[in-house]
Design goal:
The complex is a heterodimer of chains A (147) and B (206). With 147 residues, chain A is α+β, with helices and mostly antiparallel strands. Helices cover 16% and strands 41% of the residues of chain A. Chain A has a four-stranded mixed beta sheet with strand order 5-1-10-9, with no helix packed on it. A four-stranded antiparallel beta sheet of chain A has the order 3-6-7-8, with no helix packed on it. In chain A, strands 2-4 form a two-stranded antiparallel ribbon. In chain A, strand 6 and strand 7 (91-103) form a beta hairpin. Chain B is built from two helices and ten strands; from the N terminus they run αβαβββββββββ. The chains are: A alpha+beta (147), B mainly beta (206).
Chain lengths: 147, 206
């Protein structure tokens, strides 16, 4: 009887772990990863001080200090977003466009959002390169920003 | 020889003078009906199968409707709602079985047309609530089927069909990829297995 209960608990535990892993297998990311470089020597800027980093649609300040790279959320109900990077000397603008696809990865997880076809629409940074146009957890960097 | 031909006929049929038997059969899927009773909020619908029986050969027309709802305990509601149609031949391999027992192998061409919608409160920094609807999506596939049917009354039969669903046409979508395809199963599975347990009524025509 005890053995049967133990086997039952073990099976339920394995099933429970399985469901958690199922959601973790989803590779889609809700954040694009931007990395910042010095335009003069293409060396990564390891500490950046911004007064604020604000998306155009929301009064949210995501960062005031960025260490080399940062995560920027995209709006799932739109296909464009603009960020303003405020500094003491000047403000930088970065406008991006993207496509969005929704689907259920598993009914036991929140719906999955696939952001893809990421493009730079406008910027006053010296140069911005899209090095990963899909927001995927296995793609370490989406944007390289030079200034 | 004459008795052997009589045994190859559909269940409930009397031997005709020219040894040809033709009948019509209407099946209702009990699993679909059971879901309407036990899990009506999550999965509901029905499925009927009509068959023309010509000696040991069968021609099946099948029609069904299915509604699936997901996300009951989550921040989303996903609904897939549509109809499906199948058509195809089958052959009864038990030519000499007694008591109207049939063992069939067959092929079906199937098609599904459906709508799907998603409402999702992302609870992200933008406060996004997604509300999407994609209508009139359609796809098609093939099914290899096998099944057993037994006579349980003078004109009443009962049995099951196992379906192996293959070669589904890929679905394209602008914004919302479906999860459930009525009549097929999950979109992310290229092959699926289906099961029907049905009760049928037989009408001899010749």
């Amino acid at each position: 009887m005890k053995t049967r209960n133990l086997v039952l608990i073990l099976l339920i535990s394995i099933w429970g772990c399985n469901e958690i892993e199922q959601c973790q297998l989803d590779r889609n990311s809700e954040f694009l990863v931007g990395a910042f470089y010095n335009i003069k020597d293409s060396v990564a800027r390891d500490t950046l001080i911004f007064n604020a980093v604000v998306p155009s649609t929301q009064p949210l300040n995501f960062y005031d200090t960025i260490f080399f790279g940062a995560f920027f959320p995209l709006n799932p109900t739109d296909t464009m977003i603009s960020y303003t990077f405020f500094t003491d000397s000047m403000d930088y603008e970065l406008s991006l466009s993207y496509d969005v696809l929704y689907y259920l990865f598993s009914p036991d997880c929140d719906p999955s959002i696939r952001y893809f076809d990421l493009k730079v629409v406008d910027t006053n940074f010296d140069s911005v390169a899209v090095v990963g146009d899909v927001l995927d957890l296995q793609i370490p960097i989406n944007l390289e920003v030079y200034f | 020889m004459a008795s052997g031909q009589a045994q190859s006929q559909a269940p409930g049929l009397k031997p005709a003078a020219d040894s040809t038997s033709i009948a019509f059969r209407l099946n209702v899927d009990l699993i679909s009906l059971g879901r309407n009773v036990f899990v009506p909020a999550q999965k509901s619908g029905f499925e009927v199968q009509t068959s023309l029986l010509f000696n040991q050969f069968r021609l099946h027309f099948e029609y069904g409707a299915q509604r699936m709802e997901r996300g009951e305990n989550y921040n989303y509601t996903y609904i897939s709602n549509g109809q499906f149609l199948r058509i195809g031949p089958a052959i009864n391999l038990l030519k000499n079985a007694k008591d109207g027992l049939e063992m069939t192998f067959g092929l079906r061409y199937a098609q599904s047309t459906f709508d799907n919608s998603l409402r999702y409160d992302t609870q992200d920094v933008f406060g996004s609530v997604i509300s999407l609807e994609e209508n009139n999506q359609n796809t098609r596939w093939l099914e290899l089927t096998t099944g057993l049917t037994a006579k349980i009354g003078k004109r009443i039969t009962m049995g099951y069909t196992v379906r192996y669903k293959i070669q589904r046409k890929p679905l394209n979508s602008d914004q919302l990829l479906p999860y459930d395809i009525p009549g097929f199963g999950r979109r992310d599975d290229s092959n699926e297995v289906g099961f029907n347990y049905f009760i049928g009524w037989l009408l001899p025509l010749k």
